[in-house]
Amino acid sequence: MTYERSYNLLNSKFRELFFPTLLAAIAGNFALIADGLIISALLGPMNLSVIQSIEPLAQFANVIYWMIGFGGTILATSAKANFKEKKANQIFTLSLISILIISLLVTVLGLLFPDIFLQALCNSSQLRPLVSGYYMQYLITIPIMCFFIVLAYFAKTDNFVQLQFRAFLMANILNVVFDIVLIKYTNLGVSGAALSTTLGYVVATVYLSKYIFDSKRTLKLVKIDIGESVKDLLNICKTGFSASSVALYQSVKLIIVNFLILGALTNVGLVAYNMCCNVQLLVSIFIFGTAQSILPIVTVYFQEKDYNGVEYVARNSLKITVLFGIVFMLLFTIFPQSILFVFSVKNPSDIPVVMNAVRIFSLCILAYSINFLYIFYLQSIQNNKIANIVTLLNGLILPVAFVFIFSTARNENGIWFAFVLTEVVTLIFIYLYSRYINKKTDGEYSGLFLKKQNDANEKMMEYTIEGNENEGVYLSRQIQEFLPKSKSYTFVSLAVEEITVYIMDINDKLDWIDIIIRDNDESTIISIKYSGKGYNPEEDPNLDSDNIRMLRSISDNIDYSQILGLNNTVITINK
What we know:
The protein is of the alpha+beta class. The mean pLDDT is 85. It has helices spanning 8-43, 48-81, 85-112, 114-121, 128-157, 161-185, 191-208, 226-303, 307-334, 337-342, 351-361, 365-380, 384-408, 412-440, 469-482, 487-506, 546-554, and strands at 445-446, 451-452, 459-466, 512-519, 523-530, 557-563, 566-574. The longest helix has 78 residues, at 226-303. β6 (557-563) and β7 form a beta hairpin. The protein has a five-stranded antiparallel β-sheet, sandwiched between helices. Strands 1-2 form a two-stranded antiparallel ribbon. α1 (8-43) runs parallel beside α6.
């Protein structure tokens, strides 16, 4: 029997993360769509402009919690992958403290200087009273929402995926219920929608806080050093900025593009652009869910130098993203009236312009989906420089430049085609950049996802075995055939046999075990990843057996960590 890597364990973990994360992304964004639908139905389409006016503030809140949430989880996951549990706990604690302080500061400033913010958000004297009521209540929501989402990101990374999903679902179901009650049965009007969001997040945050008190979590709240925390916070912001800046550039873009479209196409242009934004929001929910699924997995496997695993996850995610992109592109290109029906656009004079805008805009969906996934992928491998460049080009420079050119020419179709050009040009830039890096590094990096090649002086073997003792014994014999004949090759095969047999002994049921062996002139490193009950030599020093005694005698170091619900044991045998 010959063993090789099957990626069954990786597939299982990807599926475990993907569906709850996708559903959480749907639930997490449903509040915006639900607010729009309910406000449109109960208060009339005019009030949708209130939501659109507040959108830059909502996007700014997204910047804050994405930057801290994504940056913190990436750094904490990287620390755990490198067996730095103390650093991971410090990052976790600092992220929760900093998101509370920053979001509370935004709320306080917004309450102290409402006129300045309202002037920037809404130029219409007719809309400003409505926007003001929604704005004041939304400010109260920001700290609760930001804390909830950052805590949810860490809970998912710590393998509390179902808890995270149920919390997001709870927040948004309650939001819909309170929307109907407060808008329909009170005099709060559109500000009732903002209060509904606040109440939904309050209840969901209380529920999600169960994570903090759960004994099974691996991330702990610890005392942090102020001096070291400043440096860590800067690293968190730097790491999370590329993904969070999507929302930042979206805020700035909305203000500029709204102004340009209003000047070229009057109010009907804003209605059409609002529908295009709703199309993008619907698509981004699914792409965002996919991107969030790969982010922690790619981060862990990249830190462990498992570049084959990284590429495998990235390619599978790309297939899913392309499928979503094609489906939504065809849907809104062929049936643009579907989005008008959902958001109750009924004005006869608006319908032709809006349908035309949605049909042209939808042509960008496939390229947009790939670009969005790629930004998150670059962030997960901590290639922050190019991630920031792609985000800036795609999120601000290209769309504003193209819309400006076509709006100056008063070309209505050109304005909507500007968004298609933005995504296509961004995708071409990504392709050319990857080709440039492939050639510049002489093959050290390859492909669209810049897969890093393993050290030429290091021999690597990858295996997947089923969870029974015979598999471990047979694999140890096969390893002897691949390793060079030396004193250490016997130790390596013996170490693999002893640890795999012991893992199977302490687990009643085990599906798959991934084993990677790296052999170089100085040492042989054995990495073993599996689900179920793990063995930690530091926490279980008294746990003993013939297998463990033998393993300790031949190993120079044994490290253990638990990430994403997977146990990772790394055995080092020096030569």
